[in-house]
């Protein structure tokens, strides 16, 4: 068994009470009344698998475990993603859509937040291939390998000199006579890149020209792919990369969208990406609350449980109320998104899509702020027990520090929302 922590700080009684099964019970007590029967059943199904997997594999969530070793087991169960039913690769999941993926993320984030964050990066590599596979065998092969957990995936958008400015890329693509492309440039902060067999990348035929962007599937074993790990102390188990593409040749069948299609493809994935990040923020908040509330009901100071002191109990009720309210809101959004995707055959009308992009930014913005607030305050209320390595609180606290930056910084979300306010005014 891998080492669980450096030194035990929390006493045996409290540490045992903080186990995954009890934290799931706390979550379910809060959600059973607002979830549909199908949602609650699927949530408990994923929870059951996580409990079994943790026990059978003696998972400690300690510092030396390789979370990438878990991909095949979760992929076999269909727990890498449930945003689609993946009929194109003969999986035909019964439970799928944004609301069901919310349930998957909730269960998995309680199990291991860093693993859930990493699998989320695989999902945003999966989605554009799903949308643009065109039944081409190699694209379906890549799709199946990632959905089944045979390999993580990564998405290459961010560049060292561009950050969140995704439409003025410096990475170039040069089309060849045979329909292939030659890529040159650098990408950075791409989660899973050093561990991935498959990458989805964007580049442009002319530097700084977003209208000439194209969209590619890359096998990282190709000549011209160079990747080094970027150290992110907040997420020590995740592998983020800095990539240098040097005359990397992408064959024609790997071109997901030619010159002029890249920008359109990039923006069509914004809603599910940002909603998934928002869902992880809510899930982290519930995870931190579960730890803090269980702890506060057991930990005694001045001869009584610390929950009974107003400074602790009232703070927790405030965090609990905020988390519950945002959970209701984002669940409703996911349900509406699923309904509209079904109604319009998986392709939203432009006006609805624009409105949902703004909503996605709103939820991503608010849920990241929520996570930052709840995870810190929950750890603070637990004192040293919330800051040491004895529980998953260290992961919740760490990830919540960077949640605002992932998938477009806070300022980018503000910019998108402000542009939407301007467009709403123009429509008056």
Low-confidence stretches: none
> Helical residue percent?
40-55%
CATH class of the largest domain: Mainly Alpha
Distance between the termini: 64 Å
Number of helices: 14
CATH arch. level architecture of the largest domain: Up-down Bundle
Radius of gyration: 22 Å
Category from helices, strands and their pairing? alpha+beta
Identify the strand order in the major beta sheet: 1-4-5-8
Major β-sheet annotation = 4 strands, mixed
Q: N-to-C SSE series?
A: HHHHHHHEEEEEEEEHHEEHHHHH
Account of the 3D structure:
The protein has 428 residues and is α+β, with helices and mostly antiparallel strands. It has 3 domains: 12-147, Butyryl-Coa Dehydrogenase, subunit A, domain 1, CATH 1.10.540; 153-260, Butyryl-CoA Dehydrogenase, subunit A, domain 2 (Beta Barrel), CATH 2.40.110.10; 265-426, Butyryl-CoA Dehydrogenase, subunit A, domain 3, CATH 1.20.140.10. The chain has helices at 12-17, 20-31, 37-56, 71-76, 98-111, 113-131, 137-147, 262-268, 270-298, 310-343, 350-381, 384-387, 393-402, 410-426, and strands at residues 153-156, 172-175, 181-191, 198-204, 213-219, 225-230, 240-250, 255-257, 300-301, 304-305. The strands form 3 sheets. It has a 4-stranded mixed beta sheet with strand order 1-4-5-8. Strands 2-3-7-6 form a 4-stranded antiparallel beta sheet, with helices on one face. It has a two-stranded antiparallel sheet with strand order 9-10. It is globular and about 80 Å long. The mean pLDDT is 95.
């Amino acid at each position: 068994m891998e080492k669980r922590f450096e030194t035990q700080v929390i006493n045996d009684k409290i540490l045992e009470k903080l186990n995954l099964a009890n934290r799931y019970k706390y979550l379910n007590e809060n959600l059973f009344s607002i979830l549909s029967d199908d949602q609650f059943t699927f949530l408990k199904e994923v929870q059951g698998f996580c409990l079994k997997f943790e026990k059978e594999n003696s998972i400690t969530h300690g510092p030396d475990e390789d979370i990438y070793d878990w991909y095949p087991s979760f992929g076999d169960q269909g727990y890498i993603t449930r945003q689609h039913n993946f009929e194109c690769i003969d999986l035909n999941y019964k439970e799928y859509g944004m609301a069901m993926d919310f349930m998957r993320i909730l269960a998995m984030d309680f199990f291991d937040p860093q693993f859930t964050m990493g699998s989320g990066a695989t999902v945003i590599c999966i989605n554009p291939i799903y949308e643009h596979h065109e039944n081409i065998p190699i694209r379906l092969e890549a799709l199946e390998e990632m959905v089944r957990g045979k390999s993580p995936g990564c998405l290459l958008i961010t560049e060292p000199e561009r950050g969140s400015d995704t439409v003025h890329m410096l990475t170039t693509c040069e089309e060849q006579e045979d329909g292939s492309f030659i890529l040159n440039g650098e990408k950075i902060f791409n989660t899973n890149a050093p561990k991935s067999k498959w990458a989805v990348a964007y580049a442009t035929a002319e530097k700084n020209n977003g209208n000439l962007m194209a969209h590619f599937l890359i096998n990282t074993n190709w000549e011209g792919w160079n990747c080094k790990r970027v150290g992110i102390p907040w997420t020590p188990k995740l592998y983020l990369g800095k990539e240098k593409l040097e005359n990397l040749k992408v064959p024609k069948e790997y071109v997901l969208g030619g010159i002029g299609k890249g920008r359109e493809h990039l923006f069509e994935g914004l809603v599910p990406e940002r909603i998934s990040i928002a869902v992880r923020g809510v899930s982290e908040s519930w995870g931190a609350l579960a730890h803090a509330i269980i702890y506060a009901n057991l930990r005694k100071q001045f001869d009584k449980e610390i929950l009974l002191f107003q400074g602790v109990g009232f703070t927790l009720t405030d965090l609990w109320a905020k988390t519950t309210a945002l959970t209701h809101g984002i669940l409703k959004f996911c349900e509406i998104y699923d309904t509209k995707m079904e109604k319009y055959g998986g392709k939203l009308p432009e006006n609805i899509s624009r409105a949902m992009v703004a909503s996605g930014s709103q939820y991503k913005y608010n849920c990241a702020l929520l996570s930052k607030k709840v995870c810190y305050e929950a750890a603070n209320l637990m004192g040293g027990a919330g800051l040491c390595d004895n529980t998953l609180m260290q992961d919740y606290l760490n990830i919540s520090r960077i949640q605002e930056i992932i998938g477009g910084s806070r300022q980018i979300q503000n910019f998108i929302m402000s542009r939407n306010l301007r467009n709403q005014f123009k429509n008056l």
